[in-house]
Design brief:
The protein is mainly α. The protein has one domain. Helix content is 53%, strand content 7%. The chain is built from 13 helices and six strands. A hairpin with a 2-residue loop joins strand 4 and strand 5. It is globular and about 65 Å long.
């Protein structure tokens, strides 16, 4: 159980692992609840571990900054858990999207109430995933420290029976692709009923024209900044049809492939992460284009070409402190794992994609600049 598996050069093509038949059988039993010893008595050490995990999770789940930092700290300690670096990057992007709502463009395009709705949607999803996934990471950490698997504690943290089986198999197989695919499947199923199918968020966010326009404007992107000498290049992808569960799972696996298919990419992204603390401002990756303080004078014209400011001030991108800390209600407790529809998604597959999102990102910024100008002068509502 060490970090050597993080040095993989290529992801495997789609194929079933040798233990696939046995794993499917275990998962089938998990759906019936027959694999859990519900009457198992916890030792004092078990109770101590559970208390420590709950305490650490609550402290790290204060806001997007603390969550994002916690994922990175964990990955630096346990590089074999690929998902933790992927979660760190996705959580960074969530923070950037949160501050966009109070940045240069969206306050002009969206009403204050709509921006509050969008923020609540992002913050709730970010919080929910962390409070479910981070205890799993800590269970793994305590298993390593005690040199024995402690995954029987997962039900006491309300983690899906699906993940109890997967973590047990990971302990035996050291298969990072199985574990990462499973965690992607778990997180997307976990938020599906609690966020995506939630009537309030459907009405206030998902079914709005502003949210649906993200597909047209390519604003729903996940960016992976990476060091390239003195420059910072962007890899990543754009998600479409966000409300569809299978599309989100497919997208998550796509991002995983982009981040870990080449060791050089993984190392370059990690190098950037370590040297650029997460603030929520997009200046973290391109400070030549973004700034956390509003520059220029009211009405000053800005001209952008290929993500370079030709004239005018840099784009305003504030830090996360523009949003107040949120007190969350505890989530509903139920196990999403009630059918075997997700099992084929466990098998990793090679994805043909360069991840060249930089050109798309630049065009999107130029388009937002034009839309905002037209909105300001009243040519569009």
């Amino acid at each position: 159980m060490n970090g050597l598996l993080a040095n993989i050069s290529l992801m495997p093509k789609k194929k079933t692992p040798p233990y696939w038949k046995e794993l499917k059988k275990e998962l089938k039993e998990a759906r019936k609840g027959t694999h859990i010893e519900k009457t198992k008595k916890l030792s004092q050490e078990d109770k101590r571990v559970l208390h420590a995990i709950r305490t650490q999770t609550k402290l790290a789940n204060r806001d997007n900054i603390t969550r994002t930092n916690a994922y990175l700290r964990f990955y630096l300690e346990y590089e074999e858990i690929h998902w933790s670096l992927l979660a760190h990057m996705v959580s960074r992007n969530a923070g950037w999207t949160m501050t966009d709502l109070k940045g240069e463009y969206l306050p002009i395009i969206l009403s204050p109430s709509k921006r509050d709705d969008f923020f609540s949607f992002l913050e709730r999803g970010n919080w929910l995933i962390f409070q479910d996934a981070y205890p799993q990471l800590l269970i793994y950490k305590y298993s390593i420290l005690q040199s024995k698997p402690l995954f029987y504690l997962l039900p006491h943290l309300h983690v899906s029976s699906f993940m109890e089986v997967i973590w047990t198999y990971y302990w035996k197989t050291n298969d990072p692709h199985l574990l990462t695919s499973a965690l992607i499947i778990n997180e997307q199923n976990y938020i599906d009923s609690r966020i995506i199918q939630n009537n309030h968020f459907k009405t206030a966010v998902l079914n709005t024209l502003a949210f649906q326009l993200q597909d047209v404007l390519n604003t729903n992107t996940i960016l992976f900044p990476m060091k390239d000498g003195k420059n910072v290049l962007l890899s990543g992808a754009t998600v479409h049809h966000f409300s569809h569960l299978r599309e989100r799972i497919k997208f998550g696996k796509h991002l995983y492939y982009l981040l870990f298919s080449k060791k050089a990419t993984t190392d370059a992204v990690l190098d950037w992460c370590v040297h650029h603390p997460h603030t929520g401002s997009r200046k973290d990756y391109w400070n030549h284009l973004f700034h956390h303080v509003k520059e220029g004078i009211p009405g000053e014209k800005r001209v952008l070409t290929n993500c370079e400011v030709q004239t005018g001030p840099r784009i305003f991108s504030p830090e996360l402190t523009v949003w107040k800390e949120v007190a969350h209600q505890s989530p509903t407790i139920h196990d999403w794992f009630t059918s075997g529809d997700c099992l084929n998604d466990l098998i990793p597959s090679e994805i043909d994609s360069s991840g060249n999102i930089q050109r798309i990102h630049c065009r999107t910024l130029e388009m937002l600049e034009k839309i905002t100008l037209l909105h300001t002068i009243g040519l569009i509502p």
